[in-house]
Amino acid sequence: MSTDTTGRGSDAGGPIGVPNTPGAGTSGGFREDAAVAARLTVPVAMGYLPLGAAFGILLVSQGLSWFWAPTTALVVFAGSLEFLAVSMVTSGLGLAAIAMTTFLVNFRHVFYGLSFPLQLLAGPVQRGYGIFALTDETYSLLAANPDEELNGRRITLIQLFSHGYWVVGSLTGALASTALPDDIKGVEFALTALFTVLAWDHARKRSNLRPVLYGLASAVVAAVVGGEQFLTTAVAAFLLLLVGDYLITVRAKSAHA
């Protein structure tokens, strides 16, 4: 366990009341922690600001009031699911279908929680926010940095900064959309383009192309049998294929052990 060097005790908080949690690998002051968090989240800002703006424009273009963009970004903060939520709400999708789609899309967060350093966060408020604000990007940042560079306050600041980027981007896009023509088209393709780029990047950088092939197969199955439940069917099929792939891989490794 590290020793506090600030002279304030290990539970001393910063200006926003975020404690420097015992057990953290570093115990710098609030300004140092804020500077580290700001530096680490620069890549997140480069993604969240334009994508948030696209979300704000999409939301307003679908006939919703502009203030729903920052409100949704603030209280939901689910990235891709927020894009999906716009289409699901405006299309009149049933509550059960929305709940199932939400569960399937965000099911991966269950695995994030297995290695998320929740023990570095103190108190129910900080831990609750840590769980709420755990996204793909913040998890990647936490996983990519060694434990000695993180403490409870830095983790919370990383999540707060990332959350702020998304809210600002959404608000900017929503306000900017009020000056755009009402008949603007193509914004709804933003999410499709995002996932297309991510899939291409995965295929380009990795030798294992099975996830990409599983995604294509799931889309074909959903197109044939999914009907109006295309997304739910595709995600469910993709999840089943991934689970099956995992079980086969584990069995093969056990057989060769």
From TrEMBL:
The chain crosses the membrane at residues 48-69, 81-105, 212-243. Coiled coil: none annotated. Pfam families: AzlC. The keyword Transcription regulation does not apply. Keywords: Cell membrane, Membrane, Transmembrane, Transmembrane helix, Transport. It is found in: Cell membrane. It is a multi-pass membrane protein. It comes from the Bacteria. Its main location: membrane. Residues 1-23 are annotated as: Disordered. GO terms for biological process: L-valine transmembrane transport. GO terms for cellular component: plasma membrane. Belongs to the AzlC family. This is AzlC family protein. It comes from Streptomyces azureus.
